[in-house]
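Field: sequence (string)
Field: structure_tokens (string)

Example rows 1 and 2, in order.
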Amino acid sequence: MTPEINRIYNVNHSRKGKFTMRVDSVTVDWAHGQVVDGTAKAMMNYNVKEAGDPITVRLSHCQFTPIPSE
């Protein structure tokens, strides 16, 4: 599934774990956006992303579940 721009998704990433993300842009391989809730884990502490931090994820490593808009 290719995420839509300006939507919020629950993301299950094979390396970063589970977090919520607002998608700002999408390319062939990548989704760019901002962490809305949760923590995107990483091997190195300086790469851990918290709510409000920008994030880029590889589409092939993620499963995106849209959060219904209110």
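Row 2 begins here:
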Amino acid sequence: MSPAFPPVNTFLGMVSRVTLMALVGMVLGALFGWGAGSIAPSFFATLQPWTSVEPLGMAIVLGAFGGVLCGGALGGFALFLQLLVIWRSGRQ
């Protein structure tokens, strides 16, 4: 990546990369939730058991939550693959 990030083989480098991927996933998930809530607000209105929250707000929160999970998992998997390649290149 850029020189601003610590090396990937340090703990701080791993945590910063996975955190960055989770934050990017949160932003993209919230944008997806905003789009989905704008297109089909009645779908999210049937999912929520209370009426004090607007369906668009619930769609944004659910999208951001899913984005954090998916972004963090994708970042962790990419980090695992990168560490595996580094480990295997050192063995040969």
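free_text_note (row 2): Residues 55-91 form the longest helix (37 residues).
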